[in-house]
Amino acid sequence: MTSYIIRRLLLMLPTLLGILTITFFITQFVPGGPLDQIKSLLRGHSGVLGEAGGGGTVRAGEKPEELDPKHMEQLKKVYHLDRPMFERYLRTLIWYSPPDNGRSFAANFFSRDHWEGFLVFKFGDSFYRNQSVIELIVEKLPVSASLGITSFFMTYMVCIVLGIGKAVRHGSRFDTLTSLIVLIGYSVPGFVLAIFLIVLFGPGDGAVAHLIPLSGLTSSGTPGYEDWSFWKKFTDYLHHLAAPLLCYVLGGFATLTLLTKNALLEEMEKQYVLAARARGLSERTVLFKHVLKNSLIPLVTGFPIGFLAMFFTGSLLLEQIFSLDGLGLLSYQAVIQRDYPIVLGSLFIFSLMALIGQLLTDITYVIIDRRISFEESQG
To answer: Is residue 55 part of a domain?
Structure first.
């Protein structure tokens, strides 16, 4: 397994380089870059750039303003567009800037402060927000992590218990009814359910009952919030979390529930289960001591990548509907604004997490099921 892990780790580098290279060159040729947006703002094209933060308009009889060439050159330096494309590409990956500080070459070369680029985990600063990419991701992470962690554990707990119940009562009325419910939930898009909940139970005047808060995951802007007790703050957090969480998890119940049920039914038909029953073991002992351990292998092996992904859960539509400032909205705004450091930085982090999660999933397969061997399969 050691050689397999080393090979997989070595393959991560060209994979990440390929993702970054393709994305970098796409962003360079997509129209509507930072300079184009500033030109449009000066010409009053606020309708085109409204989503990107533009707000200028031209009154009747006024001549649209043009950007001074000197200012254009200054802006190119600000956005690093004054350098050749190949140099910008290398600076995105890795770049060494030798300083003139009187220290030896070795001392400067092996100092991380003189390097930049994603391969040394330096993602630069946002073009418009005056913050580094890491700071922005960390700032938006609590919203996404709150939804991701809660939905992840809730989905696993509910689906495993429900899948076991459906397998034990296979073909019964309970099995049919729960299958109908989870499939209906799977067929309803999360954003459609979110709109339905906002219309009926949101803060609007036409709502049947005002059960869903206006925005955010807490009432931190409410006067006196800092003086609330821990229990009151916790219940307020659950109140804000309930509706977005329902829309996040509803569609994920069907796949995991049916996977659990089918895995249990498949294990129940194997010979070792018949032998255990023939020895006089009770159905409960056979289910929980023999069948459940083997049937949950497909679910447990998907745990690592799901665990890593839950911290970066993001959904643009749900965050827009419930006014949540998370990673989904940040990524969307970065694409609209052509904020290339955020686009490339978030893509690099998400891709790296996905590759690490996939590697951990493969390792988990071997740990749980000793019959799997990477060396034998390759031999």
So the answer is: no
